[in-house]
Amino acid sequence: MQQGQLCPECSEWDVKDWFLGRAWILWEKPNRSKARDERFQAGDKTKRRRNNKNRRLLRDVKGNEDCPLCRLTIKALSKDPAYGQIPEGIDVEVLYAQLAFFLRCDELGSGKTVESVIGLGAPKYCNRLLVSTSEWDRDGCHPYPVATGSFHLITSTTDGQHDVQEPILRGRAVRSQVDMKLLESWVRRCHEDHEVQCRPEPRDEHLRLDFKLIDVNSGAVVHSSVRASFAALSYVWGPQSVRQVELSSDTYSLLTTRGLSEIWEDVPQTIRDAIALCRSIGIPYLWADQCCIQQDDETDIGQVEYMDVIYGAASLTIVAASGTDSWAGLPGVSPGSRQVQQEMEVIEGLSIGTAQAKYSAAMSSAIWLTRGWTFQEYILSKRILIFTAQQVFYQCSNAFWWEDTHMEVPNPLTVRLDGLHELYRSGPSTIPSRAIDMGIIKKPAIGSLTPENYLEKYLSLAAKFTDRRLTRQSDALRAFKGIISYFSRATEECFFAGLPLSGIHAALLFAISHPKPQHRRKEFPSWSWTGWDSSRLDGDYIGYEFCEWEPEAALYRIEHTSDINVAESVQFTRIQDRRMSTLSRESYTPRSLWKLSIRKDLLKDLGVDNLLAVLAPTPNIVITGTPGVGKTSHAELLARNTGLKHLSINQVVKERDCNDGWDEEFKTWIVDEDKLLDAIEDEVQEGGCIIDWHACDLFPKRWIDLVVVIRCDSTTLYDRLTARGYAEKKLEENMDAEIMEVLLEEARESYDEEIVVELRSDNAEDIENNVERIEVWIKNWKENNRADGEA
Ligand SMILES: Nc1ncnc2c1ncn2[C@@H]1O[C@H](COP(=O)(O)OP(=O)(O)O)[C@@H](O)[C@H]1O
């Protein structure tokens, strides 16, 4: 066989048709017959293909090293780490499929064609072939790792000038050096075509800081004019041992006069490359934190609070996503900095090459994605150029472009591309869906904030942020400060320890999964997400429905209004819903007050002297009754449904050493009442206890908000107590007590009559109904006892 000629099996296929065949589906407004025709056409093709056997034994493909399609297949598959895990000599197959897209286009109609709406680049042709190994061998008895890859029809144009002429999805050659014209065209295209959410924010409004930039032509650190266009760099510094260049009082005069070129050897590669990149694509200034914030100047360091302004105002954010520190550089900017493994073959006159790693694969090991500081840099930026080892990606709120594929359509707002699984199900049947996903990921934008949505948006960002790693745990708040500033400017919300005060009731409700002492960030309060180390926050923090919950805690500002008699003059002003109300002194009891350990500097942030949080009080309930009536059954269900604490006095007496020994005759513990009250006092004072005990008169009246006396039919009770194996004497005594209503009487004598309720418990349904009744009562009680009574 001649070099470059297809093997007999591959030549049976119409390779040209694979790449150039119409293989996309259109979704349009209903009743557009032309579009429907197109869809049918696509369907027809699919049907025809299904009958083709686009599959080969991997073993055979591997053996055909002289066949360019077989060679490409193996090269494309071997880019996937799973390929190396497929054992030799087994009968797995290689499946071939066209890449098809589901193209949504809302603007068809009034004589418009797809081509006229999305331009010449309409995806008429498939342009890309997917390959995948099958999960099962031919016998279907053993699953194997699945390797996937793809190759595409490559055009020679790479400079971004003519890509409108190219059909989307056609491949582009990726060379060892990045085509700067392409990168420049992305920024320009976004600037010209995209809507306002991609535009940099004006800088002059907010930036009252001493803002410095690197002049990329002279290398000097300069105070720029507010209108200068600049790129911001987002990268990881790496461990402390890594050499960095620092703007400090020592280097200040050198860097601001003669510039970085004087100490070029010390300038990390990533910063050098970013400077070169800016120069090539015509951005005059670069912002890189280590050169633009004076590291030993407190005022300058304060700029970390304005990351929203800096990244929001940048014309472009350059992301160094490969490597582990600031010396990793931007692959493809300096000569020899990128090794491209794009294999090319000419098959039937078509230039075909393997595709580079898609976004998710290229970013799978990116440390940049895992670091705390880079989170806000990503979220707050408008346009991002991401440098990975394989290729460069461009992300904004309207587009996602990458080096090896033409995706730049002139009217991006009207086009959405989604991988279409259905087509593959009807086509070569077992192409795994992950081979289809091209990973089109638009940059998340915070978007417009309204009183209704900002809380949910903020909390969801906080939850995502906690997945990120920080070298210094004390940076937990500072690394998020830009996002906080953004929200507080847009909504006038006050933030405290990372919690939005108006939504404090939702913000306090986060869940930490499996917290351990080592996960606590001691610098921050435990009741804030900032107080916990990475990835401990439950993803469901995002509590839209939480916002509708009754606040469980309120924050109060403590004000000393007079110094004559401090005790009398303390005022508590509630900070919630920006409604100022005061808390009466009576509410200021240990029962309702939860003092927060709040750091002075955090308080300064808020401009307040002192704060305390008051938990909305929860009631204490006694569940009493003769043994066997069902107290424990009620208390347990009630605790489960309400989250209140079940305090079984039986257990307390036994476990907390509150007894005077065991009464053999009555087969029960002899209770030392004083010890018992001491043992439970703190808990009960906090509120929210369900006290389960067959006596109630020993609990001080002020502790108790509701007394539930459970009753039951005497024959039923007799059966239950006999089943428990009660001694004759004990059984008799209890039966008498129930019949004589001893406990009901005791409850009525010890507490105000209106808080004593009698409930029957003869069958299982009674328990549920009773508990439901108590729940309603708790809700009403909370409503009437909210800690915002007027002083
Ligand atoms: N309403 C009821 N219907 C049916 N069985 C009940 C009911 N209440 C209690 N029981 C049963 O009676 C026994 C005693 O109940 P328990 O809750 O331990 O009572 P106490 O705590 O008052 O001694 C348990 O076996 C329980 O399942």
TrEMBL record:
Its UniProt entry gives the catalysed reaction(s) as: ATP + H2O = ADP + phosphate + H(+); AMP + ATP = 2 ADP
Keywords in alphabetical order: ATP-binding, Cytoplasm, Kinase, Nucleotide-binding, Nucleus, Ribosome biogenesis, rRNA processing, Transferase
Keyword set includes Kinase: yes
Task: Name any one GO molecular function.
Answer: AMP kinase activity
Q: Which SUPFAM superfamilies match?
A: P-loop containing nucleoside triphosphate hydrolases
Instruction: Indicate the segments forming the Heterokaryon incompatibility domain, all copies.
Output: 230-377
**Protein name per the record:** Adenylate kinase isoenzyme 6 homolog
Organism this protein belongs to:
Coniosporium apollinis
Organism placement in taxonomy: Eukaryota, Fungi, Dikarya, Ascomycota, Pezizomycotina
